Amino acid sequence: MSNQNGTISNVPAQAPGMEMQNGVPTIVSAAGVNVMSGNEKLHTISILVENRPGVLARVSHVFARRGFNLESLAVSRTEDHTVSRITIVVAGDDEAFKQIGNQLLKLIDVIKVIDHTNDNLVGRELALIKVHVDNAATRAEIQQLAELFRAKIVAVDPTTVMLEVTGKADKVDAVTTMLQQHEILELVRTGLVVLARGEKQT
Amino acid sequence: MRLVAWRRRFPLETHNSALKTHYWSIMDGAEILLESLKQEGCDTLFGISGGAILPIYDALGKQSDIWSILTRHEQGAGHMAEGYARATGRVGLCIGTSGPGATNLVTAITDAFMDSTPTVFLSGQVATPNIGKDAFQECDIFGITMPIVKHSYMIKNTQDIPRIVKEAFHIARTGRPGPVLIDIPKDIGEREFQGAFEYPDSVYLRGYQPEAPAADEQIRAAAQLIAEAKQPILYVGNGVNSVDAADELLAFAEKINCPVTTTLLGRGAFPGGHALALDMLGMHGTAYANWAMHESDLIIALGVRFDDRVTGNPKSWAPNAKVIHVDIDPAELGKIRFAQVPIWGDVKSVLKQFLEVVAPKQHSVWNEKLEKWKADMPLDYEKEGKLKPQFVLQELQKATQGEAIMTTDVGQHQMFAAQYYHPKQTRSFITSGGLGTMGYGYPAAIGAKVGCLQGHRPDADVWCITGDGSFQMNIQELATGVLYDIPVKIAVLNNSSLGMVRQWQKLFYSKRWSGIDLAKCPDFAKVAEAYSATGVTITHEDEVADAIREAQKNPGTVVLNFLTDAEADVYPMIPGGKTVHDMVVDGSGNKIPVGGWAKSHGGNGNGQMEREALETATSGEYAGEWNDDLKAGQLKI
To answer: Which residues face A35 on adjacent strands?
Structure first.
């Protein structure tokens, strides 16, 4: 009935729709894989919230109050128009992150908090990058680069080319690095959005 | 008696439904709001009127079911709502206008948040078309209060009022209680309500599950730890008071013969003077409570949050104990201290479950040891010199027999009250614990007394223990207390200084007094008279009992101005961030080993205590030593 550290395990969930650990509601998992400095890890979490004004402020307050800096943030509607999904990537140690999860769960407008760090995920970011071009050779070079990364050229005019890149953060980083040989005029990228593969709900 | 007129009640069920529909259809938003509040059983609203809430005050003036109490400051109104809630267990209700009216509520909202007090705060807002345009008396109170409320609403549509009120009260009172803010733009109150008024029977909040029955496995695991424990201790807090579980706690403690220590907010959860009562623990707790905690092998923590004023240094606190932690808020379980058995549930139901599964026990060796500690190291104070605040509290205890409801402000007098007043009942010790709000006590006392008058405990006396610093932070509410004939007895322990800060400057800053001198503070007896209350100044011990007796007989508001010794400090004391080994029990500064001095009662039989005594005993001025700790960053204030 109890494991090594004396915690009572295998307690059935007390209520449907709520993940339980030791008879206590909790975020689904809290172990990270991407190691940062010290005990810090990158955690990717989905927060399902009521689609109402002020909810994002409440959620971001929970992080800000504890001095967490969000690496990325994406908010959108879901298949259910009354529910929004907030996807956050944040660095922090497991213990502090568990606290954050518990505090998020206390918000009335938060329906569910899921830590994806160990999940088998499809994760994507999107970036739009505007590059200065002054001759045909540069344009051709950028076109080649776009093909290499499966990026799309979405706008062209006599002096600029705009690329649309989707992929994981490292791919977007790589494209950006390559384009730095040219003159990047403007760059914008979204936060990471994720969904779990297969039948598993995100 | 005057209240009878205020409290004319017309149960809604007696209304003719056809008539009701017709009448309701011409109601405006403000009337719908009040009707919704009545449906929630509200009988009192504390607050101050103003431009943005004119429609609501207009509607208030046209009815008599809700007693509208006009205070002199919105902060006072907020604390009154808190006092009302803490004394009665019902949701306290408070209103302020937009802008400054709303910002004046912020301290009270935070206080209610920290102490989990069920409250609903209504704030006025400028009319919807003016929001965000820096209109007169506009402020984003919804945004300002976001981190200090359990939940908040801004009403955007008059039709939403019944649902929002229903949800707000549900959220405020269920689970871990707390404050809910409803921001009401002026035009919402004025707009006509379309259709018949229907108050919802239930709420739908899919993101809010306030509680669930505790899992049987957890209860059984806890029962096993209880059965195995030799030196258990019950550590109980506000979670017991807030679900009125005092009876279950008493039955449980007696069944397993387990000593009980209460937190500051847990005072009253266990009857003072009971053989198993160890009184308060923590920074200014009794020596025997802290020693018992240190030596315990099992902590049964009920409705507590292992606050730093209790644990000092959580890493070395109660080093040998396993922990059963019961709390209504799952985020508290394991937050500070790992719990071998965390139980999510309300203390009352969990105690009932415990009572079914635990077998009666005796801990005679353990309890004898604690009895001895209680006899050897009772609360004590230096009696020479000027009138002592502790003496006043002892006389109050004698005069009230612990039957009165006592509210306190924040500071030395608060700790003296917690140490020397032993409430017999739950909901009888009302104090600002988490936020430590000076200026809380007197408004909270008014709120508590209003709760009593509204039928909760009609005969209960309400005392406010305050200091000269705290009292002056909301002294204007004397006008409210006198005007509405809400008789509260106020004992000001007046040492003409901010005593607790002074004590810390004495101990940790080599008596470099700074920002503590309240000399030339007004004569509180005369202030009382200026407000048409009774005021008496007391300077000698032999006047104390008579003054208290006279105050008890007086049907109105009485201010007893006790001129006390500024050198009387609060002991025992464990400095912030320190452990039980750093406890001092008097001004000599001598640290006292766990269990007391070896020579007086023979130690714990293995010589360890004598060794500890040698290691930890230091004499003389400890200010120097603690100063060093402070500089080295080891002392956390």
So the answer is: A41
Q: Which helix H or strand E contains B412, and what residues bound it?
A: helix B412-420
State the pLDDT at residue B617.
Answer: 41
Residues of A in contact with B152 (CB under 8 A): 54
> Would you say residue A95 lies in a domain?
yes
User: Count of CB atoms within 10 A of residue A170's CB?
Assistant: 9
DSSP run (H or E) holding A125? strand A121-132
Instruction: Note the Cα B559 to chain centre separation in Å.
Output: 22
Model confidence over B123-153: pLDDT tens digits? 999 999 999 999 999 999 999 999 999 999 9
How close B343 comes to chain A (CA, Å)?
A: 7
Closest-CA residue to B139 (of B74, B76, B190): B74
pLDDT in tens, B285-306: 999 999 999 999 999 999 999 9
Residue in this structure with the two tokens 């009942």, named with its chain if needed: B425
Which residue of B207, B330, B341 is in closest CB contact with A109? B207
Quick one: pLDDT band at residue A199, thresholds 50, 70, 90? confident
> What type of residue is B472?
Q
- Which parts of chain B have pLDDT scores under 70? 1-25, 598-637
A15 found inside a domain: no
- The burial of B346, by beta-carbon neighbours within 10 Å (0-12 exposed, 13-18 middle, 19 or more buried), is given as buried
Q: Among the options B63, B137, B159, B552, which is catalytic?
A: B137
B226 to B262, B286, B297, B327, B611: CA distances (angstroms): 19, 24, 10, 17, 31
For strands A34-35 and A83-92, give the pairing: unpaired
- What pLDDT was estimated at residue B2? 39
Question: Is A6 in Cβ contact with B150 (below 8 Å)?
Answer: no
- Cβ separation A1–B142 shorter than 8 A: no
Burial of B615 (0-12, 13-18, 19+ CB in 10 A): exposed
Is B420 strand, coil or helix? helix
CA distance A90 to B7: 55
Whether residue B572 is preceded by a cis peptide bond, meaning omega within 30 degrees of 0, is: yes
Bridge partners for B429 per DSSP:
B406
**Is B136 an active-site residue?**
yes
Residues A141 and A191 in one domain: yes
pLDDT at B624: 56
Q: Are B494 and B524 in contact (CB under 8 A)?
A: yes
> Which structural domains are found in chain B, ordered by start?
2-190 (3.40.50.970), 216-376 (3.40.50.1220), 389-563 (3.40.50.970), 580-631 (no CATH)
The answer to whether A25 and A58 are in contact (CB under 8 A) is no
Q: According to the model, what pLDDT value does residue B200 have? A: 96
Query: In terms of CA atoms, which chain B residue is nearest residue A25?
Result: B330
Instruction: Give the end of a domain, one of A119, A153, A188.
Output: A119
Taking contacts as CB-CB distances below 8 angstroms, the residues of chain B near A112 are 207
Which residue range forms the structural domain that includes residue A81? 20-119
What is the maximal distance between C-alpha atoms in chain A?
73
Residues of chain B contacting A99 with CB distance shorter than 8 Å: 331, 335
The dihedral through the CA atoms of B410, B415, B421, B425 has a sign that is positive
